[in-house]
Each structure stands twice: as structure tokens, then as C-alpha cells.
Design goal:
By secondary structure, the chain is mainly alpha-helical. About 55% of the residues lie in helices and about 0% in strands. α2 packs parallel to α4, α3 runs antiparallel to α4 and α4 packs antiparallel against α5.
């Protein structure tokens, strides 16, 4: 009888909070991918180390919450390259894409009109 011994791969995946690999593990929610692509598109035409790091962080963000928190980092990356007005406009445009995708704790619930 063999006991289930953890190996290096399963230990690392456990530390990273990932499930065991599956054939459909990489499939994402369509809304998540639309937000991700819009965020990556905002870096189009820019070069440099910070841009490359931001691109990688956006590409490998695991869920919509991670992308939500990366918005401010994206703004910080865009500020010196595109200016404050463009960076703020980009952030505002991206924020609208998150509607209906976030958990209620992050403001994902639709707001009721004041009566």
C-alpha cells in the first residue's frame, strides 16, 4: 500500500494556490478575458521594462479581482509615458468594464437609486 507522497510539483502548486493541472484549467470567463485584453491594449505602442512587467502581470492575473487591483498599477505605469489625463481616462474606461464581474465586497453589486 502506497501513501500519497507529495512531490515537488504538487507542493509548488499548492503554495501557489493552483489546482492540479487539468485540460480545461486555462479556460477563463469571457468577461475576464475582455477586461484583460482591454488592459493590455492600453499598453500598446509603449516599451520599457515597467511596461513589460505590467504586461506580464496582466497576462497572468488569475481572476477578475487580481485585474481589479492591477488597475492602479497600470495607471502608475501609464502616467510617465502617456500623461495624467490619458492615464486617468484609461482608468475610468477600464473601471466600467468591471461592472457585473466583481464580488459584492468589491462593489460588484449594482447600486440602487436613492429614493
Amino acid at each position: 500500500m502506497r501513501w500519497s507522497k507529495p512531490n515537488l510539483r504538487s507542493s509548488l502548486q499548492g503554495l501557489l494556490g493552483r489546482d492540479a493541472p487539468a485540460s480545461t484549467a486555462w479556460v477563463r470567463n469571457q468577461g475576464l478575458e475582455e477586461v484583460r485584453q482591454a488592459m493590455i491594449a492600453s499598453l500598446a505602442g509603449l516599451t520599457g521594462g515597467e511596461v513589460a512587467r505590467m504586461h506580464m502581470r496582466l497576462r497572468y492575473a488569475g481572476d477578475i479581482e487580481a485585474l481589479w487591483y492591477l488597475r492602479s498599477d497600470l495607471r502608475t505605469t501609464l502616467l510617465p509615458l502617456r500623461g495624467e489625463r490619458v492615464a486617468n481616462a484609461t482608468l475610468s474606461r477600464l473601471t466600467l468594464l468591471f461592472q457585473g464581474l466583481l464580488p459584492r465586497a468589491l462593489g460588484g453589486a449594482p447600486k440602487r437609486p436613492a429614493t
